[in-house]
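User: Sugar ABC transporter permease, Streptomyces xanthophaeus:
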Amino acid sequence: MNASRSRSRSRSRSRNHSRSRNRTRRAVRTGQYAALAGYLVFLGFPFLWLLSTAFKPPRELGSLHPTWIPEDPTLGNFRQAFAEQPLLHAAFNSLVAALCAAVIAVVLATPMAFVLARRRGRLSTAVSGWVVISQAFPFVLVIIPLFLVLKNLHLVNSVPGLVLVYAVWSLPFALWMLTGYVRAVPPELEEAAAVDGAGRLRTLVSVVAPLLAPGIVATALFAFVTAWNEFFFALVLLKTPEQQTLPVVLTHFLGAEGAADLGPLAAAAFLATLPSLVVFSVIQKRITGGMLAGAVKN
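Assistant: Predicted structure for Sugar ABC transporter permease:
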């Protein structure tokens, strides 16, 4: 009788413990979803407000009681923005600079990452330390010597000079990212290729590079977005309107006393965000796969 009661109490405690654990899990999951929803709202609010402002007429822009949805939406801000500033030409300059810088950074970083990931030693440690330290240098600290170097190379006020700057600035971050992806590739695959007679370059191109495709795409995307959004180097190095990039041209919507032409500025800024959004949406699966590949340990 006592044994039966003891088993009954034990089963009851087990059920209560299981219910308590399930409630805790549901509470934690609910908190996670709430935090994620709050983070999405935090990220989406500026973009949605920018989109709303881009379609508002001047009367609504000066209203003391702004609304989310324009009462009388208009495309006048977009027409005025294109009429006042060379947005298409500036966007082309930004696209050329960002694409070329991303390609150069990835092409240079891939073999370097392969060497760093496979050969551990003092040189690898020193290079890894340089990668980390280089990201801590502020732009202002390097702009004067950088300007002098480009002046001696006759690359000031030119898109090729800006491409060179962006590629060099993106290289440490690209190298750091790709090193993690290379370390996730099993070395046994390279050993098998060596047994079949493949050299280092052939192994990198035919064996390692296809497995690194998601990581290469993700790294190139981050390098592209960084160069597309960069403002300070473009402001200092580019002087003539024909060479300026889109972030610099956006500042032309500000008046002499700091007053902003809010409608055209919002329209132009909205158009400037579209390339990054399109690229992210198109290769989202590649980015996800690259992130997971870099996180796997073998």
